[in-house]
Amino acid sequence: MRAAAARLRMPGWWVLVPALGVVLGLLPRIPIATLHEDEGVVTMWGLDILAGRVPYRDFDVYVAPPLAYLYGAAFGLFGSAFLVDRLLLLLPMLFGTGLLAVISRQLLPASWAALVALLWGVWLPAFIGYGAFDLW
Q1: Pick from 75, 97, 76: nearest CA to 86
Q2: What is the pTM of this model?
Q3: How far is CA 30 from the centre of its chain?
Q4: pLDDT band for position 129 (cuts 50, 70, 90)
Q5: Whose CA is closest to 104, among 96, 126, 57?
Q6: How sure is the predictor about 120, in pLDDT bands with cuts at 50, 70 and 90?
Q7: Does residue 74 contact residue 132 with C-beta atoms inside 8 Å?
Q8: What is the mean pLDDT of the segment spanning 111-125?
Q9: Which of 86, 118, 79, 87 is nearest to 101 (CA)?
Q10: Could you tell me if 73 and 2 are in contact, meaning their C-beta atoms sit under 8 angstroms apart?
Q11: Which of 127, 10, 29 is closest to 82 using CA atoms?
Q12: Of 10, 16, 39, nearest in space to 132 by CA
């Protein structure tokens, strides 16, 4: 039991600092309503799911259907606000940055692992608007 609890301990600072960098990098971009074509298409897929349509039968998708169902479920739970769309993009950014920090920590000291993950993570919000499938 203690071994399982030890594995579930809080992540180190070298994971939390890059994650905070991603959040801070994304915050100024959340209200910018420049729906690029890709982001609008992915949002529409979620709304199509919400309306009861089925991918490949009722509308075309060019990625795996789970992304459309993920957006449909999120819009169903939280509403189809622009903020929900943007916050869904935060999840893979945080996951990827944390994973990079953990992998880097296996090879580098904690400060270097945090720096590698931070530099990569703060770059990710620059891709907001180009489509969720690029991140998921």
Answers
A1: 75
A2: 0.78
A3: 13
A4: low
A5: 96
A6: very high
A7: no
A8: 91
A9: 118
A10: no
A11: 29
A12: 39
Distance CA(88)–CA(60), nearest Å, equals: 21
Q: Could you give the CA distance from residue 107 to residue 109 in angstroms, rounded to a whole number?
A: 7
CA pair distance 31, 75, nearest whole angstrom: 17
Tokens at 84, concatenated: 């929900």
pLDDT > 90: what percent of the chain?
A: 39
User: What is the DSSP code (8-state) at residue 63?
Assistant: S
Q: Name all contacts of 64-68 with Cβ < 8 Å and 24+ positions apart.
A: 67/42, 67/132, 67/133, 67/136, 68/42
Cα-flanking dihedrals φ and ψ of residue 59, to 5°? -155, 155
